[in-house]
Predict the structure.
Amino acid sequence: MRFKNIQEVKQQFDSTKPIRGTNIVPLGERRRKWEEIRDYSTSTTLHYRLFCEGEWFVEWEHDITNDTTLVRVRNHGGHMGLKFLTRYAPMGLHFEYGQSGKHYIHTHKGGGMFKSHYLPVTWRYTEDQPTLVYEKLGDKWKLIGDKYFHTRKRVKKQEKAPYRKAIQDLFDDFMVIAPLLVLGSERQSWSERGETERKHMEAIRGTSDSYDYRDDWRMYRPILLDRESENRADMVGIMLYDMEINDRHSLHNASMVNIRSRFNNWINKNCNFTEDYTPPPRREEQ
């Protein structure tokens, strides 16, 4: 159900009875208790929020005095949240999500043209969470709040270059050590995996001054360079669990190309060989 204006939102709230024994006013099917509408209106404003799983994704606010309508859209991600935005983004605002993980709100400019606004995902609620703010002007919407542009990761090639031989040596050691670490091990539960990985991490941190996970790369780089390091096997153990090839079945059925790809990704991420950058905006974003 996509609303055209604040009057339709108000009508939906006023005409829907709460679910028995609760204060939940459902948006659609009553069995979907996690999708609800809440009223925050005052004497001078009509104010409603559309919730999914306890987080609001769409907010309607109408100033009665100035006769202006604003809509705010947030993106908490998740399969159900993305489906929620698809169904409940206001008429005239079209939510797009794809496999790339980049999400957009499209507005029509006329003449078959549209404007795209990137909507970042924030998995947990924060006060300064990215929010697209639109004002309704007749049948169209105008973005009046901040614009956002998605960032990508790229390898810091110059910084990584001196480690090239060390990375190849670690991969050679990885292919020798990995089968020994998973020898006889069957598939583990998430808790068992976490406990094993914790033991490897504690073994490394016991000989390192770094205890902040954001600075783990300061631990890994010296081990990467020192082929005789006593922590080399523990580093491989951590890699196995992060790469999700920590049992015989996964390791023996993974192709060499797949293992090398996961290995490179792990090294780039955990040894701090990547950086964020903002690519040029798409034509329809400009």
